[in-house]
Amino acid sequence: MNVKRLINNCPAGLFTAIVVLAILYLTLMPRPLPDMDLPLFPGADKLVHAIMMGGMMLCIGLDMARGLQHPEAVPKAKLMVAFIVTAAFGGAIELIQGAMKMGRGEDIYDFLADVIGALAGYFFLIIIWRSLVRWLRDG
Prior knowledge:
The chain has one domain. The protein is about 70% helix and about 0% strand. It has five helices and no strands. The protein has helices at about 5-10, 15-30, 45-65, 75-100, 110-135. Helix 2 (about 15-30) runs antiparallel to helix 3 and helix 4 runs antiparallel to helix 5. It is elongated and about 50 Å long. The two termini are about 10 Å apart.
């Protein structure tokens, strides 16, 4: 099956919902992944936070772009709202982690990494918007 057709035929919001559920699982479960004793560089968890929120922004953008029939001007206002929601989501996760007392506390630097990842996703979407809409539409 054609990848574009598969993407376009999925229910609205599916990609965003999948990523949100994955992020909630990975951030709110006490031990979401098995221990593999892999040596990580300092700050690796911050990079993971940035990637998760950047991925969330990209999925929101993909869900927004699906179904558009022609490349339109970049919806900067809608993408800014998505950025704010994504950053707030990252902040809420940090507060929930602190309240749950499960050994994973809230961390301002995790939140900053969330914001940086969401901001990177925002700017990336602005850059690729027209190409993304065209790619989804054509073929």
